[in-house]
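Supplementary Note 3. Input sequence used for the single-chain structure prediction.
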Amino acid sequence: MAKSCKGLAMELVKCLSESDCVKVENRPFRECAKEKSPVISSECVGLRETYFNCKRGQVDMRARIRGNKGY
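The predicted structure, written as discrete structure tokens, is reproduced below.
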């Protein structure tokens, strides 16, 4: 994992671990990360989208040359 996305990944895990999906329903992180807004907070949804864009930027050759955008 690239260092530029590592911080986002840690924030996403922290946000999901504090959500009701993981705490109350005892579901795994992967299931909760796929859920929509009613189950997890809008902050977690935003972090998920930002992390996805960061990872996608690593695969895009143009972005790899220029580097990921500072989100």
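The chain is about 70% helix and 0% strand. Residues 1 and 15 are 19 Å apart (CA to CA).
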